[in-house]
């Protein structure tokens, strides 16, 4: 009678143990921090200043002067770790981001951030008052911790379909040290939820929604776009953020920086004027040929100005043209 036990050689047992250990190691959780964890000792306090550079000299095309004039929404900033994303270029906008980009509302974004804070993905949230003109600044103080060393922020361009400027996951910690100062130029982004081309376009939902993309001097490549400047290789900065670390004592003793007092280091930069070329319509059809049969007639056609030139841009061409012709009432005599 044969035994029910199976004999396994020693070398095969060792091989099975090695394979089991290898399988368990592959199943271990993946570290999503990719070696970018902040090992700084203790938190760091910063002053954040947002400065708008949106002027008719730098951005003359369709510059909003009224109903409403050019201005900035309130700024929303979040400190967080890599598990959280306020927004991301190349990714679809969340419902909260859509509400902010189109209407400047922060209710849904705050709600999402509070849920993420329960999961220890978000540290703190900050908001500043809006800026009632294209040039100006707002500011707030930030407190970052090694657990939440990243900074994301957004500000809506007003008026606009769904355009905004912002920063996505800017790290203020490098290895074991907090950065002392960071300056970052901001350019416009399209949230991908509204298909309007101009600052004052009516609501025109994008169906289905597209991903968030940066707006450049030639993208979208359409002359009706408010940021379309084909002579420029890149747009001037629409805004700038300046983040500077504060000493613990100065943060406790000083009041928050007022929205009406601009620190010396953050005064607006002076950018060169952006030339805006004249744009005209297509020619109208030729008018009737009028004139005496003895001398021949003339006919005219016209075009009109679509966009006036500014800042030494190409001047407008002739708006009226004429040529000789044979009057219609003379054809019967030929």
UniProtKB/TrEMBL annotation:
Spondin domain location: 34-223
Broad class of the protein's primary localization: secreted
Secreted in keyword set: yes
Transmembrane segments: none
Coiled coil: none
Protein name: Spondin-2
Entry keyword set: Cell adhesion, Disulfide bond, Extracellular matrix, Glycoprotein, Metal-binding, Secreted, Signal
SMART domains in the record: TSP1
An annotated GO cellular component: extracellular matrix
A biological-process GO annotation: cell adhesion
Keyword Cell membrane listed: no
Signal peptide span: 1-27
Subcellular location: Secreted, Extracellular space, Extracellular matrix
Entry's Gene Ontology molecular function annotations: metal ion binding
Organism expressing this protein natively: Anabarilius grahami
Record Pfam families: Spond_N (PF06468), TSP1_spondin (PF19028)
């Amino acid at each position: 009678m044969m035994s029910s036990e199976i004999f396994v050689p020693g070398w095969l047992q060792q091989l099975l143990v090695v394979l089991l250990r290898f399988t368990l190691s592959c199943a271990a959780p993946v570290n999503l921090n990719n070696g970018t964890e902040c090992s700084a000792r203790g938190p760091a306090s910063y002053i954040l200043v947002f400065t708008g550079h949106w002027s008719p000299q730098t951005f003359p095309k369709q510059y909003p002067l009224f109903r409403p004039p050019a201005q900035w929404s309130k700024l929303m900033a979040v400190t967080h770790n890599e598990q959280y994303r306020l927004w991301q270029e190349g990714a679809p906008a969340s419902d909260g981001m859509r509400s902010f980009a189109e209407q400047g509302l922060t209710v849904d974004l705050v709600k999402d951030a509070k849920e993420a804070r329960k999961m220890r993905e978000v540290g703190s949230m900050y908001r500043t008052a809006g800026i009632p003109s294209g040039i100006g600044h707002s500011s707030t103080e930030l407190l970052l911790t090694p657990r939440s060393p990243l900074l994301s922020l957004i500000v809506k361009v007003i008026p606009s379909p769904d355009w905004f400027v912002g920063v996505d996951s800017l790290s203020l910690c490098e290895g074991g040290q907090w950065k002392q100062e960071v300056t970052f130029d901001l350019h416009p982004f399209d949230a991908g939820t509204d298909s309007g081309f101009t600052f004052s376009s009516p609501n025109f939902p994008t169906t289905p929604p597209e991903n968030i993309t940066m707006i450049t001097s030639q993208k979208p490549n359409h002359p009706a776009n408010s940021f379309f400047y084909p002579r420029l290789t890149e747009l001037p900065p629409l805004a700038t953020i300046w983040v500077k670390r504060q000493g613990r004592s100065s943060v406790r003793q000083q009041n928050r920086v007022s929205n009406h007092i601009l620190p010396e280091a953050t005064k607006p930069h002076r950018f060169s004027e952006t030339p805006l070329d004249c744009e005209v319509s297509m020619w109208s059809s030729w008018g009737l040929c009028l004139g005496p049969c003895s001398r021949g007639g003339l006919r005219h056609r016209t075009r009109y100005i679509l966009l006036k030139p500014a800042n030494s841009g190409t001047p407008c061409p002739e708006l009226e043209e004429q040529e000789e012709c044979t009057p219609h009432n003379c054809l019967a005599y030929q």
